[in-house]
Queue: 2 jobs
Job 1
Amino acid sequence: MNVKDLLNLKGKIIAVSGGAGFYGKSIVEGLAEAGGTVIIASRNLKNGQDVANAFRLKGLDVHSMQVDQGDHKSVLSLKNNIYDTFGKLDVFVNNAVARPMKKYDDPMQNFSESMRINATGMMDIVREMCDLIGESGGGSVINISSMMGMYGPDLSNYEGTDMGNPPPDYFFHRAGIINLTRYLARVLGKKNVRVNCVSPGGLFNNQPERFLENYCKKVPVGRMANNDDIKGIMVLLASDAGAYINGENILMDGGMNA
Ligand SMILES: NC(=O)c1ccc[n+]([C@@H]2O[C@H](COP(=O)([O-])OP(=O)(O)OC[C@H]3O[C@@H](n4cnc5c(N)ncnc54)[C@H](O)[C@@H]3O)[C@@H](O)[C@H]2O)c1
């Protein structure tokens, strides 16, 4: 088959959790630009609708549905809503993250709340979406982790800023999702569900000047990720061009950890 046809996502129904967030918007845009029908699964429905409307004005087939991945009923209602509206699911991008913990010595309740959403809730939504993809004949799941799920924090990035050290829960659950990827790839193979993970570096978001200086001098390409950087890898993993990529974690950090 021609590689352009292999990469074409026309006819594929794709759900992106946290699709109205920073990386989420770029992921949604890239998958829709490649021809996919994309559902922003967002905790705040109004936010999701606003983002979906803006993409529709650009001619992209983007929809919005509500979900709180910390609430099992809400996860089931998303699953039913996708099935009732589109009759199937081909691709799930497991992208949502909650950030209740801000620093190393925050109260343990904040760590527990993080696990409720980012571990238990994340497992709940990915399992339900995998079931729906399996019932639809198979497809692709793409977990979004972070380079912070692969390496310890580089504290020198924060020198001279008032950003403080990054919180520990993030390093814990981002690492967990990487090995969960390998587990799911093996267990769901017989249902024809491929599972991969993308671990991006930091996305440019007008961070403080000193942070940008500290960070960018360590990146061989000399910059933070921009809004286009994640699109290509998402399209590859979602599409039939990625049909033999399974159980992988792909670091996308501009070479920072090379
Ligand atoms: N921003 C970065 O620089 C960066 C770097 C590396 C990796 N990542 C990864 O990218 C992914 C997205 O992060 P982001 O930076 O875009 O964050 P973000 O905060 O902009 O977006 C996260 C989204 O998840 C949603 N969410 C939170 N709790 C939820 C819940 N209970 N149910 C449903 N949705 C919920 C939020 O509403 C938000 O829309 C994460 O997996 C993160 O680890 C981000």
Job 2
Amino acid sequence: MTERATPFYCPYCGDEDLRPAEDTHGAWECRACTRVFSLKFVGLVVRS
Ligand SMILES: [Zn+2]
């Protein structure tokens, strides 16, 4: 399983203009609101 996840929308402003951040590995930069964020894989849901 890869660690890389691709966001389609900025979680803060909802814009789609995202690109990988140059300074931080695995981080994404929103061109609209200039926020830099990263996605973290937490785990899988175990259904009983
Ligand atoms: Zn944004």
